[in-house]
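We read letters as residues; the fold follows as tokens. A sample entry reads:
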Amino acid sequence: MQIVLYGPDGPRWAPRLRTDVPDITVETTSVEDEAVALVATADAFFGAMSPRILAGARNLQWIQTPMAGLERYFFPELQAHPVVVTNMRGIFHDMIPDQVLGYILCFARDLHSMIRRQLERRWAFDEVKVLDLPRMTLGIVGLGGIGAGVARRARPHGMRIIATDPRLTECPPEVDALWGPDRLDDLLAESDFVVVCAPETPETRGLFNAERFSRMKQGAYFINIGRGRVVLLDPLVQALESGHLAGAALDVFEVEPLVSDHPLWGMPNVILTPHTAGVGSHEEDRRYEVLLENVKRFVSGQPLHNVVDKHGGY
């Protein structure tokens, strides 16, 4: 087996991969011209694929992407090609849910407001507003690995948990009700917290617009750790300014970085983080382990992990 590691991970990972799977040939490059030449005889490829690189592939059977989200990865030639594509799904299933729980607890205990008052050196006991989480409903849009992780972390806090998902049909034990996407509006109407864990696809792009926000429960909180372009920010700002929504926490945005003069920066009921929900000290090792496991599976003829629907995008 010959695999091409294309991009910045290659020089670090190639020695490890040659040691861990000694019977394979590992080539590395960060130059597209070299990748075009190397992929001509390769069985597998890791990195950012392009039409030019793919056109030179004669034996390519498998592509391992270097990321989990693939909304900008595919192009028509790749979708039509018989090559199997796998992604890095699964490496963020604890880190991102931890951050979501942090958002929820901040809002529930009014910590985001207390931090501002601390900076103002104000003792404002009478201004504190707290929420009783066991009386709250958490709605999760997208019950993949990250969404399920959010449910598992929220369950010990006594929240009622409902979710929508286009693929799952069996409700997991940590979720009280699982519905299809056609019942998203029902979820919005019942949820005190709405957490978006959905990927970006043609169906989800711009899903949260003015109409969707109007269907949310009065005084609810909105959290997006899925994909930025699933949520339109202008109607979100309007829903917050009108008081229809009590607050929002965002880790991903329509356009990144979020411009410095965007109104969200100055809203006291908003928590903004710069796409850091997936950051963790073990991220690189986890990414390598996904590649290594799939290399071993490819060599031995076993089914690969994290196979992606090239037309669905995830």
The longest strand covers residues 245-250.
